[in-house]
Amino acid sequence: MQDRLTDMAIGNVLSNAVNIGYRLNLFKAIAEISSPENPVLPEQIAEKAGCKERYVREWCNTLACGHVLEVNEEEKFWIAKENLESLTTDNFPLIYNAMLTTILRPIDNLIECFKKDGPYGLDYTVYSDFEEMQQMFAKTTSEGYVISSMIPDVGHGIQEKLEAGIRVLDVGCGGGLHVRLLAEHFPNSKFVGLDITQKAIEAARLVKKSDGTAFKNVEFVVGDAGSMPKGYTDSFDLVLLFGSCHDQMRPDLCMLEVHRVVKPDGWVVVTDVDGSSNVHTDRETFGKMAAMKYGGSMLHCLPVGSNAPEALCCGSMWGRKRAVALMNQCGFDDVEVKAMNCSPGSVLYIMKK
Questions:
Q1: Which of 107, 268, 130 has its CA nearest to residue 197?
Q2: Taking residues 233-256, what's their average pLDDT?
Q3: What is the pLDDT at residue 137?
Q4: Do residues 273 and 244 make contact, with C-beta atoms less than 8 angstroms apart?
Q5: Residue 89 to residue 79: CA distance in whole angstroms
């Protein structure tokens, strides 16, 4: 066990070093000026990245000893060809290493939540720049797949309805990434993005089409998913929740509101982290990724979803059994569950009012 604990500590150090390299574009700097045939000194990397040589040298030394970077006897560095894409393009593991620091920042506050006499949970605001990093993470995991894969996976004629023109609500829209993707691809449909965070909605309202022009079929609203505007009753053909259901302190109130605002015969699609509602099954099914899933829930999703005495404290690994049971209780009798082909480890809950 001591060896395992040591490996965990080393992994933590390397993860933080990877985050530094990602945030400062150090990997891209190395890739641009070096090769296996032409390795470079830390001072060259620092000059290219606009950083101090001494700090960059220690960073290079750390990642070379961790076999992330390559190094020779002259203490010159390069990235192995097989690692170039992983270290220089946005991808799930790279972004997740960067995002970890934002959810670890309030670790002292989280420790207090564990104590019997401690607070119920944590407010979103204590995670400071998590919102921005989460949007980058969503962009990496969603931008190339929502239109090409997720919408077709939903089935039930939803794609055709979007093409013809329907009214769509994105609950917990954050910075508006999914609304932007859908609204640009399906210009005949009208989209409303709702989020409780003023900062997120302000950012979403700045969103433009890929050609830089303004959207005419998009509206963003600050609002509570558990108490949406009264005028929304029976007004949406499709309601979407992209990973936002489990973060609610009262996801039952959220889904009751979703049931109210979707039209009769309208559809609801919820994306979420895949889980069985049994940790042993999850460990056997997902292997080492199960630890990352539960860890992400422990560090962020559980505390923000527990921050009130009446909170249900679901966490992101509440799993299929618990999620379907809650959706049934909120009026959705027939919930279809599908694995997401475009996002391994995620799941679709599809239901009709």
A1: 130
A2: 95
A3: 67
A4: no
A5: 13
Q: How far apart are CA 271 and CA 293, in angstroms?
A: 15
d(C-alpha 316, C-alpha 158), whole Å: 26
For tokens 């599908």, the residue is 338
Contact assessment for residue 226 and residue 248, using Cβ atoms and an 8 Å cutoff: yes
User: What percentage of the chain has pLDDT greater than the value 70?
Assistant: 96
Q: Determine the Cα–Cα distance for residues 123 and 201; give it in Å rounded to an integer.
A: 17
Q: Is the pLDDT of residue 161 over 80?
A: yes
Give CA angle at 141 (136, 143), nearest 5°: 80
> Which of the 8 DSSP states describes residue 345?
T
Is residue 342 very low, low, confident or very high in pLDDT (cuts 50, 70, 90)? confident
What domains lie within the chain, and their CATH numbers? 2-88 (1.10.10.10), 101-352 (3.40.50.150)
Distance CA 296, CA 276 (A): 16
Q: What is the pLDDT of residue 21?
A: 96
Query: Across 119-261, where does the E strand assignment appear?
Result: 167-171, 190-195, 218-222, 236-242
Average pLDDT over residues 300-312: 95
Q: Which residues contact 236 (CB under 8 A, 6 or more apart)?
A: 167, 168, 169, 192, 261, 262, 263, 266
Residue 349, φ and ψ in degrees, nearest 5: -110, 120
Angstrom distance (rounded) from CA 271 to CA 138: 12
What average pLDDT is seen over the chain?
Answer: 93
Rg of the chain on CA atoms, in Å: 22
Task: Return the structure tokens found at 74.
Answer: 């002259």
The model's pLDDT over 314-325, given as tens digits with 9 standing for 90+, comes to: 999 999 999 999
Question: In the chain, what percentage of residues exceed pLDDT 90?
Answer: 81
Contact of 30 with 78, CB cutoff 8 Å: yes
Instruction: Report the distance separating Cα 348 and Cα 291, nearest Å.
Output: 21
Helix (H) or strand (E) holding 192: strand 190-195
